[in-house]
Amino acid sequence: MTCRKIDGKAVALAVREEIAVRVAQLKEKGVTPGLAVILVGNDPASEIYVRNKGVACEKAGMRSETVRLPEDTSQEALEAEIERLNRDDGIDGILVQLPLPRHLDERRALNAIRPEKDADGFHLLNAGKLLEGEETVVPCTPKGCMRLLESAGVEMTGKEAVVIGRSNIVGKPMALLLMNAGCTVTVCHSKTRDLAGHTRRADILVAAVGKPGFVTKDMVKPGAVVLDVGINRVDGKVCGDVAYDEVAEVASAMTPVPGGVGPMTIAMLLQNTLEAAEKRA
Ligand code: GUN
User: Fold this and answer.
1) Which of 37, 52, 239, 246 lies 20 to 30 Å from 223, alpha-carbon distance?
2) Distance between CA atoms of residues 33 and 249, nearest Å
3) Is 25 among the domain residues?
4) What is the pLDDT of residues 34-47, one digit of tens each?
């Protein structure tokens, strides 16, 4: 079986070009979409993510504001900052970079964001709408995965989908999106017994584990489509959760790392912000 590489970098570029066109159209109406990113503390990985989000915004013609708060910021000070951005008419999307320092209550902070400005889709109201299958802002990484499946022409109705990982950011919303698209969905996690028994039934396999090379050839059904959400660093090199070379011997299509799901996450963040601005206009 020859395995097709799903080129997330190319799809993300096309999405971002389309977004730039829509941003230009909005600007003609006097509306410039704006995204605010709040970073508390100075986690080096978060620093890189936040910088990339700002650059991507500006490349798309959007306004970008990065709010840096010290590590010892209080819950009240963080929520005051969120409230300031809630009231700022130039800001359409607000993102609180996770994880927050341990003394802060993540759930309270995310729920302080006005649901219409929730660029990540992490507010409970938006999470609830996704659960109900209502149209809403969808978390960026799973939304990017769905876009990649569509762009690769993967038929989803009636397919067996297996998601490895049950996080609120990726695993759970991914499972809901696949279910809403007509898949029969299984969610596996660290307590799952006979993991490979589940994954070998998957027509669509999504790996969001956070362990390099976790998904091996023997775990994958011949012809499966495999999405690798992992971003792991091994000896300074970025790699995914899937042992790419060996799984490529059995899968029909697969996302690489880097250049797969990663670039889609930022593209979907821009899209969520743009859609909020279009609603405002
Ligand atoms: N940290 C890791 N992934 C994400 C994400 O998608 N959004 C936010 N806000 N923080 C993250």
Assistant:
1) 239
2) 44
3) no
4) 999 999 999 999 99
Tell me, using a 6 A CB cutoff, whether residue 141 lines ligand 1: yes
Q: List 50's β-bridge partners, or say none.
A: none
CATH of the domain at 63: 3.40.50.10860
Closest ligand 1 atom, CA of 37? 9
CA of 168 to the centre of ligand 1 (A): 10
Tell me the residue range of the domain where 76 lies: 30-117
Number of domains the chain contains: 2
Instruction: Tell me the pTM.
Output: 0.97
Residues 154 and 104 in one domain: no
Q: Which residue out of 92, 117, 118, 120 is catalytically annotated?
A: 120
Tell me if residue 25 is catalytic. no
CATH classification of the domain holding 199? 3.40.50.720
* Exposure string for 36-59, b = 16+ CB within 10 A, e = fewer: bbbbbbebeebeebbeebbebbee
- pLDDT single digits (tens) 266-279: 999 999 999 999 99
